[in-house]
Design goal:
alpha+beta; 3 helices; about 20% strand
Length: about 140
Amino acid sequence: MTASFQNLDGCEFDLEDDAELLYRQIPTHNWDPNVRRPLSHAFGPSSADKGKPSYARSSLASPSESRAWHNENANSKSEVVFAVSVAEVKALDTRSVDDSQCREGQSPGHCYVDFRHLEKFDERKLRAKLYNHAIDRWKIPSESD
């Protein structure tokens, strides 16, 4: 599949460092306490995200900084931090985009995984694959753990 991406805004750019991790906050409503794992849809966009679920770049924020910002500013508290890599995102025929300079008040190192080019069925497949990569890596330690 060759993705047909939307143009980036002037303040956005593609992430290129394959080894960089992208931290994803897992709020209570995306956490299954019975099996102590995130739900697979935690790695994709909510309707409010408009195809751009929020992540944080490991080169610009620690897991603890990212989680603390989320817990101070988001509507729901983060239970735990998981991550996928830039390489894993690229291998799934999408891209990770830094948009940290686009708006004031964003989380440190804000970026997103681009889902905007996908139909709903393909969005679900991408979410599941990102989930699998994150589960393979397991939880990313933060000071709140």
